[in-house]
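Lab meeting minutes (informal)
Scribe: AK
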Amino acid sequence: MKIRESLFRLTHWETWHHHAKYIPIAPVWVWYIIRSGTPWFFTPSNPTLTFGGFEGEGKKEMYEQLPPGSYPNTIYIQPGIPFSEVENQVDAAGFQYPFIVKPNVGMMGFMFRKISNAAQLKHYHETLPIEYLVQDLVDYDLEVSAFYFRMPDQQKGIISGFLKKEPAFIVGNGNQTVGELMQIHEGIRFKMDEMQARHAANLKIVLAAGEKYYLSHASNRSQGGKLVGIDHEIDARLQELFDGFSHYNGKFYYGRYDIKCKSVEDLKAGKNFSILEFNGAGAGTQHVYANNYSLWKAMSIILTHWKMMFRISRQNYKNGVAYWNFTKGWKHLKAAKRNLMMLKKLDASFPSY
């Protein structure tokens, strides 16, 4: 079995560690560092996001730069405050269970949870040592992602990739347990230990025929999510919508929008949608996983995006947006990595409700 799994990994590059695909093209990144004279050449790509949105930026600063009403109702909870105060803030903001909680500074879906009652919220609040947000659960069925970039001196940008996303779930057949159904789910085959720990309380439950059980409510690949390319949906109306998002604050030039919507057609019409996040310079080009591309094609797409990020940053720098200095950037990146490792460790054992 181990030999079979190893061969599968070897022949399916999309199962490799997410940094592995960058190794052959790393010299290009180094070249951009040399040309810019700084390892943080990307920081001017989105001037109003911390570190250009590469890593360690807060979701609060991102939401504050999106059009009002375009993202879910959200409040921010400080760690360590009495739980009674948390409940007061939640009630005052008009939230009703279920809703979503996630760290203000986080990524890859770590510690993203759906909360259905006060006991679950209390457990989450007492576990997470950093600021987190409470957010309306958006009930639109479709989640999409659009990668977008625009040169600062241009009015129109480009949607370079468009895809739909599904969180990992299993469907009951009236015979097998949650644990047994998890064993045959392709999306989590290399995350089985983590998923079993997260769903330990439910592994022996037999799901009714047709009953859907979510293994994660985050659609990230790191959480077993499925990505399907829908580039054929890119048209002038979709382009105009994302140009509008970019121009609203005038400073979002490069990144990926994650959106829930009723349908792609409604999204194009500018209705029945909600922006979950805008991910800046550090946004993964997820569409390389969604279209069955070869490794060489995927690397070519990544290089195209690096080039655009470099060009955008360079132009903003010439327009007066400074690069982060080395010490500031190094300290920020180290802190962001510590935060990510802490969240990853908590996420591996924290229950999925």
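Next up, CB showed the second protein from the same session:
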Amino acid sequence: MSAVTRIVGPGGGAGDSFAEALAAHREGFYLLLRRYIALGRPFLLRSDLWDEFRRFCESDPLGRGLCDTVLAEAVSRAQEAAIDAPWVCLAIRMRIGRWRYLRFHVEAMEHEEISVSDFLAFKERLVDGPRDEWVLEVDLGPFNREFPRLREARSIGRGVEFLNRRLSSQLFDELGKGDRRLLEFLRVHQCQGRQLMLNERIADVPALRRALRRAEDFLAAQPQEAGWEAVGHVLEGLGFEPGWGRTVARMRETLGMLSDILEAPEPGTLERFLGRIPMIFKLAIVSVHGYFGQSRVLGLPDTGGQVVYILDQVRALESEMRARLHEQGIDIEPEIVVLT
């Protein structure tokens, strides 16, 4: 059994082996915590924790007894510590996306597992001091309610692929409902009072299928580089609005994707189709950095670098949004707001 397995335990929490190791090396571990307190800093990063642990192991017989134990593995995985003597709180990253928070009372030599909310509240008190007023909390839970979540580390970076597989499998899981959902999805697109994608002339899925066939036949006979101004009057009569593409060639590709999805949904086609629908016109970027001339600011010393980075990202995002809207045939200027 590896040290990682022993720390995590069979249920994913702090395993019994950690408590057993702590009981066996109680004096040494709490002496280590006292050394952390003696550094005189309210916050210690991973490198601080590990460096002090190594010095403890090299200089103290009790420290050498910790080197090959589960406790050493726990210290190696601790990402930060918040200290307010006699309390020491450790944030331990068990593996990707899995954290545990432990609170130790050095004088009583007791410990307990706490929630992430308690850990953050402990850190806030160290920075702001005790406060009686209400503290703002942003609960993101409702956004994840009844929504599939990736749980394996190998799925990192594949969120869009996962969602498209889920969407394509659920899109037509019940006969007649999935294509209706897609129709309603396309009909809600508006920007600045201008209807996009579909108008009221397409009332149901059979009408959408007929309009797609007629639009494809019409566009096939038009110059492929022509724009919406040349073909829009006909397409609007069929039930289509701007957003399908800048040129006839791109309109035909996008309409063909929708036809394929209605015929037999497939993740790759769905991903390409959704990527062509104009949905993002305004962005709000929330940056918790960018403080200047304030004392005891978390993130020092390079807060100015974060501001430069955000501004560079804004320019890049604006260029990308403008290019996509142009390809989609939408003449709307994107807007980006930075909150800091």
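CB comment: DSSP finds 15 helices and nine strands in the chain.
No objections, moving on.
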